[in-house]
Structures are given as C-alpha cells and as structure tokens.
Amino acid sequence: MFPREDEDNAGRSSSASSARPCPICGKPAIEKTRPFCSKRCADVDLHRWLGGVYAIPAGEADEDSKAYAHPDDDSL
Fold first, then answer.
1. Omega of the bond prior to 21 within 30 degrees of 0, cis?
2. How many domains would you assign to the chain?
3. 5 or 42: which carries more pLDDT confidence?
4. How far apart, in whole angstroms, are the C-alpha atoms of residue 16 and residue 4?
5. Mean pLDDT of the chain
6. Which residue range is the domain that position 49 belongs to?
7. pLDDT tens across 22-50, in order?
8. What is the CATH number of the domain that holds 25?
C-alpha cells in the first residue's frame, strides 16, 4: 500500500510533528479534541461562540445583496 498523504517517511502522522497549540490555553492539542487540548477548552470555545464573544462584523448592504431581495419588498 501507499503511505497516506498525512504520513511522513517514518510512518508517523506529520500533524503530530507540526501540531498547533490549543487556541484557548496554548498547550499541545490532542487528536481526540483537536484543535483543542481538552474537552474543557473545547467547551470554553463553544461558550465564547454562543455568548457572542466571537462575531463577524456586518457592514452596510451593498448593491449585490439588493439583487436578492424579495420582489414584494417595497423597501428598495
């Protein structure tokens, strides 16, 4: 068989050698909860999303979005 793309020549996963740290606490991530180091850090991240800490700023509607407006909408 051919080695998988994510394996290096030694047969080990290349992601283990270049693993990114946990985005919450900075510890090495583990495979089971990747990209986090633990279920606790995954839950902290989920709480931040649900609490609105992470947000994508919305801008003014542009001309392209008006093209998708409902035809009965008189706000145009």
1. no
2. 1
3. 42
4. 14
5. 76
6. 20-54
7. 999 999 999 999 999 999 999 999 999 99
8. 3.30.50.10
